[in-house]
Specification:
Helix content of chain B: 40-55%
Order of helices and strands of chain A: EEEEHHEEEHHHHH
Strand content of chain A: 25-35%
Radius of gyration of chain B: 24 Å
Number of domains of chain A: 1
Strand order of the largest sheet of chain B: 1-9-10-11-8-7-2-3-4
Strand content of chain B: 15-25%
Number of strands of chain B: 11
Largest interface: A-B, 15 and 19 residues
CATH topology of the largest domain in chain B: archaeoglobus fulgidus dsm 4304 fold
Structural class of chain B: alpha+beta
Largest sheet of chain A: 6 strands, antiparallel, barrel
Number of domains of chain B: 2
Shape of chain B: globular
Radius of gyration of chain A: 19 Å
Strand order of the largest sheet of chain A: 1-2-5-4-3-7
Number of helices of chain B: 13
Shape of chain A: globular
Oligomer: heterodimer
CATH class of the largest domain in chain B: Alpha Beta
């Protein structure tokens, strides 16, 4: 723990476009699809911010075999969940970074985090700061891997929770305006997205 | 078509012959099975004479047969009830043998274990512990590098030691069965000439067996797809007359040549086991018996209706002669096989916890390399090994 935040996993592979970290059995609240997370990069000189866009449980032949049993006792279930060394893989889309404690930059980081770096959840203040501007929405829309519309809706729902109650409507209207600008040539998609984030 | 070292096109005709041969062999053995079965029933009719003769032969000759116990030879025992709460412990080991072509001389033993608390509805307790051996006295015996056989014997002793440790901590709380993923007799090839080393290895192994017995837990070795022919040899013995009792005749299996014990127990229904027999192997009688650990065995159908799975289960005499413990072993193994198609779940998991993968081995070698470099060595693998690493990947084979 370098900055008071609690690590939720460690990085297993990365590129400037994003990274994948591994964690054990998830808690009910972490990790969540659409959550903002951060990882150190450039030997802790910078922080990369990202959005969780996929949480995957992998299988193998043993888990497939016991999965087919109709009356599997709890010990087998707990063994597969708690002990088997098959980490849950969490994929993150990089959407911004901060260098040397300076201001936030939206876009891909100059260098990705590296193997086994600690990934932590962004706190409310960080999420509020990151979503003061909506520049990251374009990166999400352009991502070839992430389910962009779902991810935008989930991230905005997470961000709106950090706003004071009387600011929430305005926050979502501003997000809607930015989406309207970005999706002006795809009205059907825009309409669908706006419906998802309507206050 | 890339150039491959194994030219499959050359082998196709041989594969054809191989499969024809296998089906002929199967038909031939099936044809001899009724005779084998009839012989089994015949000797079962006179159990005392059969036992006497087998014990006598085992005493006088090197004979890898079976000696009947007080259980009727052709008896079938149904599946006993499983206790609501029992602890099933398994341990398995793996090793990295010393590599003359490697960076440094060492060998490594990794032991994985699992404690599965049946009926406790909690995650089993798993552990792996590795040890690396590099001192001269570990690596050399009489100026030559330690043999793979001795490393394997050390691994087997450590598996038993781990079972003894876990058995002692579990058996107070619930009936406890400890399982090994092989037979209970330490394996030594006939080539093993070094009598003193063999004595030492078996003494070490039996000391752990003593601890395990004292722990209060039961012990069983599980052999999947057993190819043993101890009972087949007993049948062969029944066909010999007194003048034929010599080492030459006892080496073979006569009319039952190439048959295996499991052929005799195809009628066992899921959950049922055969009678117990004493393994007449010379090592068993010479080393294990005087220490109270004579190894006995039975065959068990641990499968399900429609998909049988015949396992050979080996138990020491202190389990075999205690009906409650024997029933516990019987029931626990069948229960453990319920979700994994005829092989105990805990043994699969213990193997998984023990196995050293190629990636892990490579990572370990890198650590060794780093440590050597820090001490001013410039280690390197032999050019032969380097060559193997360069050419061993299928990707690097070009037309």
């Amino acid at each position: 723990m370098t900055d008071g935040t609690i690590a939720i996993g460690r990085l297993i592979r990365s590129s400037t476009a994003g990274f994948v970290f591994a964690c054990r059995v998830p808690e009910p609240e972490v990790p969540l699809f659409g959550a903002f997370v951060k990882a150190p990069a450039q030997r802790a000189q910078s922080e990369v911010f990202g959005l969780i866009y996929d949480i995957a449980f992998t299988d193998d032949m043993l888990v497939r075999q016991v999965a087919a049993a109709p009356d599997l006792p709890e010990s087998y279930i707990q063994d597969q969940r708690v002990n088997r060394q098959i980490p849950i893989e969490v994929s993150v889309l990089a959407v911004g970074y901060r260098s040397n404690g300076g201001s936030l930059n939206y876009g891909l980081p100059p260098q990705p985090p590296i193997t086994l770096d600690r990934i932590s959840q962004c706190d409310d203040a960080e999420v509020a700061e990151f979503t003061e501007r909506f520049d990251y929405l374009q990166i999400v829309l352009n991502s070839p891997h992430a389910p962009a519309d779902e991810l935008i809706a989930a991230s905005l729902r997470r961000a709106v929770d950090t706003c004071p109650p009387d600011e929430r409507g305005r926050f979502l209207r501003n997000a809607g305006k930015e989406l309207a600008r970005l999706l002006s040539r795809d009205l059907a998609r825009l309409e669908n997205l706006l419906r998802r984030i309507r206050p | 078509m890339p150039h491959m070292a194994l030219d499959l096109s050359q082998l196709i005709r041989q594969i054809d012959a191989l499969s024809e041969n296998a089906s002929k062999r199967q038909a031939d053995q099936a044809a001899r099975l009724p005779l084998a079965q009839a012989t089994l029933d015949a000797i079962a009719a006179d159990p005392e004479a059969t036992r006497q003769r087998a014990a006598d032969v085992a005493h006088r000759f090197r004979w890898a047969g079976a000696i009947p116990t007080d259980e009727p030879i052709n008896a079938v025992y149904p599946l006993p009830a499983h206790p609501a709460r029992a602890s099933i412990v398994a341990a398995d080991g793996s090793q990295i043998h010393p590599d003359r072509h490697g960076l440094a001389l060492y060998y490594l033993i990794n032991i994985g274990s699992i404690v599965f608390r049946h009926g406790a509805e909690e995650a089993p307790a798993c552990s792996s512990s590795a040890e690396v051996f590099f001192e001269d006295e570990d690596l050399y015996e009489n100026e030559s590098l330690i043999s793979g056989e001795k490393i394997n014997a050390e691994r087997d002793a450590r598996e038993l030691g781990e079972l003894a440790r876990l058995g002692a901590s579990e058996s107070g709380a619930a009936p406890t069965v400890t399982l090994l993923d092989n037979g209970l007799l330490l394996f030594f090839s006939l080539q093993e000439q070094d009598r003193k080393a063999k004595d030492k290895a078996i003494a070490n192994y039996l000391a752990r067996m003593d601890q395990l017995k004292a722990s209060g837990a039961a012990l069983a070795g599980v052999v999947d797809r057993p190819r043993a022919a101890n009972i087949i040899r007993l049948l062969h013995l029944a066909t010999l007359d007194e003048r034929e009792l010599d080492q030459d005749h006892l080496r073979g299996t006569g009319r039952f040549q190439h048959m295996v014990d499991t052929a005799l127990f195809g009628a066992l229904q899921p959950g049922e086991r055969s009678a117990l027999f004493v393994n007449a192997a010379p090592d068993n009688l010479e080393y294990y018996k005087p220490r109270g650990h004579t190894v006995r065995f039975f065959y068990l159908n641990a499968g399900r209706p429609g998909k049988g799975s015949l396992l050979r289960i080996e138990v020491p005499e202190w389990v075999a002669q205690d009906r409650a413990r024997l029933d516990l072993v019987h029931a626990a193994i069948v229960e453990q096989c319920r979700f994994t198609d005829g092989f105990p779940y805990v043994l699969m998991r213990a193997h998984e916890l023990a196995v050293v993968t190629m990636d892990e081995r490579r990572a370990f070698d890198e650590l060794v390399m780093g440590a050597l470099v820090r001490r001013g060595f410039t280690p390197g693998v032999s050019q032969k090994q380097q060559g193997k690493e360069w050419t061993g990947s299928g990707k690097r084979r070009f037309p």
